[in-house]
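This section describes the prediction task in plain terms. A model, or a person checking by hand, is given the sequence of a single protein chain and must write out its three-dimensional structure as a string of tokens. No templates, partner chains or ligands are provided. The sample shown here is typical of the held-out split.
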Amino acid sequence: MPIQKTALIDGYNVIRCHAPWRSVFAKDMARARELLQAYCAEWRARRKDVGTVAVIFDGSSSVVGASPQPPAGVTVVFTRSGEEADCRIRGRIASAADPGALIVVSNDREITRFARSQGAGILSVQEFVKRPRPSRGSAAGSPDKPPLSQQARQDIDAELRRVLGIE
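The expected answer:
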């Protein structure tokens, strides 16, 4: 069985570099974190090589407001007061027995440069949020996943408009 990789997500960097999450973040920091966590769970499910995802945020959850229980396979880490997420990510990379089993998601040049120098995999935020194109003939993009109903699509659109304040 192949070794399962661990993804280290530079939480606020990813949120701030992806326009839809950045827009939510400006209004509701906790909701933006929840959206990122949900996306991480979906991304992990698509990636057969990733066992766990650690989303690392700057600051104590008691200061910024704790999020609800993260989805399965996703761990949320808030750094100690005064500690930056970048420092925690560097520490995780440096202490890894096999840095090649890590995937670091960030647009922070310093973090990605360090991760690369240690042999960790790198994904830019743009690569991370890029959804795979559905295969031809499959509306859902996966033969074992039925397409969304019209009502489900409308409900999702309505929720996004509400969250983004577009209505």
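For orientation: Residues 5-131 form a domain with the Rossmann fold fold (CATH 3.40.50).
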